[in-house]
Design a protein that fits this description.
six-stranded antiparallel sheet; about 20% helix; Thrombin, subunit H; alpha+beta; six-stranded antiparallel barrel; 4 helices; about 290 residues
């Protein structure tokens, strides 16, 4: 049903890869998000929470660089451990605290000197403008639905994104105490579509701002397009809500592998939430960003 639509939307839907390191660990945590381009001028949309992570990465990395400089300057004497604990408290570094984040945009443009971001004041939406490129690495651009009244409850739609980070082109550099991208390893993660039925519309103050789907949006699909069987974009995946169904089983005895076991299970329905195309188009118009409709 969505074969041609997925191919069409994959031409301008791209992954954002991130590598994260927490304090006290040398293990790299890979992550991913999604964006899609709305024109041939290097403008894309994604979620505001994704853009905020990109923006805050520099401050996170600079904070750790400053910490390292102070740590390395501590005298290696009997008071070192105490002074280190005081330094950790000063920077609020404890186990699990994020200390490094590195990001890369996959197959978006040939050269990226910087990007300009426009964050929506209310909704989970951001516009990214890529700067300094000479060549685009994406093909085509999204086409938004012109008449949103055609979106009906019960219609099946599809989302596209990169929820499972399988890239491995990164490493921890023990000498420099840093995480870094490498030229070796897997550089891409496979795109992943997921369908869903329109269940309800999301509204506030008598304004429809979102579309709810019967299936969850997956982690990493945030910022990916929501589209119909013709590839027309109806919105953008931004979150998943979890509704308690009440079908709880508490200390229920079952037979598993021919053995009795006592289990507890609490059932939830996971519903994807997508920002409505009208909200996206309104913000693009406000920022004088070119886009297409059909």
């Amino acid at each position: 049903m969505f074969i041609e639509a997925i191919e069409k939307n994959s031409h301008y839907t791209r992954a954002i890869h991130s590598i994260i390191r927490t304090y006290g660990s040398n293990k790299i945590i890979p992550g991913a998000a999604t964006l899609f381009f709305v024109n041939e001028e290097g403008y894309a949309v994604t979620c505001k929470h994704v853009a905020e992570l990109l923006i805050n990465s520099d401050n996170i990395n600079k904070k750790y660089i400053t910490f390292k400089a102070e740590r390395d300057a501590l005298p290696k004497d009997g008071e070192f451990n105490q002074k280190l604990r005081e330094l950790e408290a000063k920077y609020n570094f404890n186990a699990g605290a994020i200390i490094q984040v590195k990001n890369t945009f996959v197959d978006c443009v040939d050269i990226l000197t910087s990007f300009t971001s426009h964050l929506h004041p209310k909704y989970d939406l951001a516009i990214l403008q890529f700067n300094g490129f000479k060549k685009l690495c994406y093909q085509s651009r999204s086409v938004f639905v012109k008449d949103s009244s055609t979106i009906k409850q019960g219609e099946f739609l599809c989302r596209l994104g990169f929820p499972f980070p399988e890239f491995s082109n990164h490493q921890f550099n023990e000498t420099s105490d840093d995480i870094e991208w490498t030229k070796d390893g897997i550089t891409a993660s496979p795109r992943f579509p997921i369908e869903g039925m329109v269940t309800r519309f999301l509204a506030d103050e008598n304004k429809i701002y979102g579309i709810e789907l019967s299936t969850p949006g997956l982690r990493g699909q945030s910022g990916g397009p929501l589209f119909n069987k013709n590839g027309i974009v109806y919105g953008m995946q931004y979150s998943t809500k979890h509704l308690h169904l009440g079908f709880d089983m508490v200390e229920r005895e079952i037979i598993s592998d021919n053995q009795p076991k006592t289990i507890s299970d609490y059932s939830f329905l996971h519903l994807g939430q997508c920002l409505h195309a009208d909200v996206i188009k309104e913000f693009l118009r406000e920022k004088n960003v070119k886009f297409y409709e059909a």
